[in-house]
Specification:
This protein has about 280 residues and is α+β, with helices and mostly antiparallel strands. It has two domains: about 5-150; about 155-280, no CATH class. The protein is built from seven helices and eleven strands. It has helices spanning about 5-30, 35-50, 60-75, 85-105, 125-150, 210-215, 215-225, and strands at about 115, 120, 155-165, 165-175, 190-195, 230-235, 240-250, 250-255, 255-260, 260-265, 280. It has a nine-stranded mixed β-sheet. A two-stranded antiparallel ribbon has the order 1-2. The radius of gyration is 24 Å and the shape is elongated.
Amino acid sequence: MTVVYVDTLFLLNALVDYLLLLCSARLAGEPLERLRFALGAVLGGGYAVAIFLPGLGFLERPLCRLAAAVLMAVAAFGGGRRLGRQTAIFFALSCAFAGGVLAISLLGGTGLSLNRGVIYSGMDLKMVLLSAAGCYAALSLLLQKAGRHARFTGELKEVRLELGERAVELTALTDTGNTLTDPVTGRGVMVVEGARLMDLFPPEQRPDGAALRDPAGALEGLTAAGGRFRLLPYRSVGVDRGLLLAVRVDRAVVDGEDRGAMVVALSPNPVSDGGGYAALLGEC
């Protein structure tokens, strides 16, 4: 008869779930919201323990497992439009990890095993914590190197936009396909998710979603409220003649380089599928 220790079971599954959620977010290009990942991991650890409690054996059923996994993903990633993609990556990593554990068990390994479908270890609690700390340190180092490589290649840049006494910081992707320019100065225009710039404006001047989708109809009201908005014509695939709401910020700092005043276009839609960046920066 196998003896299962609740404390080891909970901590081990919570730590594994946290690392899987962290990897999923990084692969999806999502911001690392560690507190949300911790919440999802706690739910996962609690589910692993609940399976072994008297009268809760029905939680082993496939539909219950699926519901628990989806609940973890929602807690960790939120309910945005990218939830499906993030959840799919999380499921894929979880399956890969479970397959690895099963393979080790079949080869005679005694470190980890699958007990009633959840991760368990015969090691004492101290060894579990030390092993988890080592895995977390190795994973963090790997992810940091990946992040530094992305910045070394010049693809991602940290941007600070200032308007009056207000400022917003975000990550921008250098996009050679962004040829949008200011017709007055000929300088390149940065395209930013409109929702990420709301803190740059006073409450009475903030354009809502309707204004971003219909900039021509909203321009008069925004200008009357004291805003410094303008209309910027653009062309893209499927759009022959379009308009974007734009504003000239007082100062743009890109990776520490002061580029002075710059025209910024407010996109009504996210510019990144994964959410790893919120702006597109042309090379000019």
